[in-house]
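Morning!

This is the sequence you dropped in the shared folder:
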Amino acid sequence: IILELLRVVDNNGNDTNEILEREELHNRGKLHNEVTIYIINNKKEVLLQRRSKNRRFCPNMLGVIAGHVGYNETPLVCAGREIIEEVVRINKNNIHPLYDRYLVKERFNNHFMYPFYAVCNKEASEFKVQKEELSYVKWYSIDKVIEMIKEGNKELVFKKEEISIFEKLKNIEL
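The structure's back. Tokens below.
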């Protein structure tokens, strides 16, 4: 078993000098840092992944790459690691901040989310899928994802407040 050690942060995102294992951190509702990475292509599509049915949070739902920032990582380093682990190798110079971090408060998973995007024009079948975390990946038009969120599609991890993220992705100059 590999322990995933995470840094606890305060309400301003500052390091508290407390490091906890991921499950303990979640069970205690401690604030920490996470990243989310939206992979887009030149056709204005976003790569969604079907999360494994074995995941603690949002099992079997459609989402994007996300992960916890390790105690010795920056959010950018973590984003690069998560992309490689879950789907594909992308040059870190092609990973860009989407906008500033935002706070997510949930029952067990309180975190600052650092959103990034990367451009990749591979076919969905060319991605290697980390089977412990994902069932498959598939390209969806950004407009279709926005429509699905507005309809309240229960397969998606995204909330209505996140439509603005997809609007921003749609308007990125490629």
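Headline: The first strand starts at residue 5 and ends at 9.

More detail when I'm at my desk.
O.
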